[in-house]
Specification:
7 helices, 2 domains, alpha+beta, 20 strands
């Protein structure tokens, strides 16, 4: 919805030209949705919400007047979009800029700009909507991208923040991260079992950057081949077995086992995802928890093994904040945008579990100021 105007000249100009009575007064909170829209959104979407803003992009901004909404026009869907942004687009998250009541006011104003909505869904409605609690569905899935195979046994996990995770369970692997609406269950309409129709926009596809012949795109985890029967130094897939799911309030967790002889045969792993917006960048955070971890095992995600990640084009690629905390930032182009991967150091959590956190953030520019803003957000 609102575009990335919290940094850059477009925002400064828009804010400076806003009448004084549109700004938040000292000691009070501006809850005027129309005024907040003019301050934060009109430069891209136009004051009338018709997409004719002063800031122009490769593709015209959404016209709310015509009912053009990326992830649905319900208050819940719009609130998630405004708060968390849309990874890989000009739309950043405003959750750290506007309060919840302010976001609600903007959402109500945007809804008022669009065409009149139906008062209630039809009885034939098959769309599942995630509320305050995560949802998990299983079934067949269509190809996640052109040239890929359909999935007979699939899994979709929908979180309350608008992220949904797409998996294949046999063999187990993570396929991609989506954002927006959840799923259309056409399989409810026939005994033949139609495939599930994910509705969210594909934000990131895992395995999409694997180099031909080096890392199988089907692999979720890989490691260096240790035996003479394998090519020395080659990456080989680590067998993974789906174990189940768990819902913890707004977040869904997926559990699986990795065949790691050094870990006593198998390693129990659980992972979750959450929408993330920092320093003008939007994306997602992947949290992985397991019973043990050792760098000696040589385990890596397939994307790491097959993708050329580099240090960002800024003077500092490592950041040290305190004696016991470091972050490692890596960068590569992602379509017309930039993708930064930020690795947090492993840490021990309750129950002796080891937790690893990886952030995937999409930015509009590979120029140093954008990276500096991201570093400042982490600091």
């Amino acid at each position: 919805m609102c575009a990335a105007l919290v940094w850059g000249s477009a925002c400064s100009k828009s804010t400076e030209e806003t009448p004084p009575n549109d700004a938040t007064e000292a000691g009070s909170e501006n809850l005027d949705g129309a005024a907040l829209f003019r301050i934060h959104c009109a430069a891209c979407h136009g004051e009338r919400g018709d997409g004719d803003g002063v800031v122009q992009f490769d593709r015209k901004a959404r016209s709310f007047v015509e009912g053009a909404f990326s992830f649905g026009n319900t208050p819940e869907a719009l609130t998630r979009t405004v708060a968390h942004g849309i990874g890989g687009t000009q739309m950043i998250g405003f959750g750290s800029i506007l309060s919840e009541p302010q976001i609600e006011a903007v959402v109500q104003h945007v809804i008022s700009l669009g065409p009149e909505r139906e008062s209630s869904p039809s009885e034939e409605q098959t769309r599942m909507t995630v509320g305050e609690r995560a949802l998990v569905v299983r079934g067949g899935l269509p190809p996640i991208a052109e040239g890929q195979a359909s999935v007979a046994r699939g899994l979709l996990v929908g979180n309350a923040d608008g992220l949904s995770l797409q998996y294949a369970t046999q063999p187990f692997r993570l396929l991609g991260v989506r954002q927006g609406l959840f799923v259309d269950r056409k399989d409810w309409q026939s005994r033949g079992g139609d495939v599930l129709q994910p509705l969210g926009q594909l934000v990131y596809r895992f395995g999409a950057h694997a180099e031909s012949g080096e890392v199988p795109i089907e692999a979720e985890w890989v490691r260096r081949g240790p035996s003479a029967a394998e090519e020395p130094g080659a990456w080989v897939s680590v067998p993974a077995t789906f174990a189940g799911t768990a819902i913890e309030g707004p977040t869904g967790w997926v559990e699986y086992e990795l065949l790691v002889p050094e870990a006593g045969g198998s390693l129990r792993v659980r992972e979750s995802f959450a929408a993330l917006s920092l320093g003008g960048w939007s994306g997602f955070r992947r949290t992985v928890q397991c019973s043990a971890w050792s760098d000696d095992w040589g385990l890596q995600w397939a994307d790491d093994a097959a993708t050329q990640w580099t240090g960002p084009p800024v003077p500092r690629a490592n950041m040290i904040a305190g004696r016991d905390r470091y972050l490692w930032m890596r960068y590569r182009p992602h379509g017309k945008h930039s993708l930064v991967r930020v690795s947090h150091p492993p840490k021990e959590i309750e129950g002796g579990q080891i937790e690893r956190v990886e952030d995937y953030l999409f930015g509009l520019s590979p120029e140093p100021p954008a990276f500096e803003a991201l570093w400042e957000a982490y600091l």
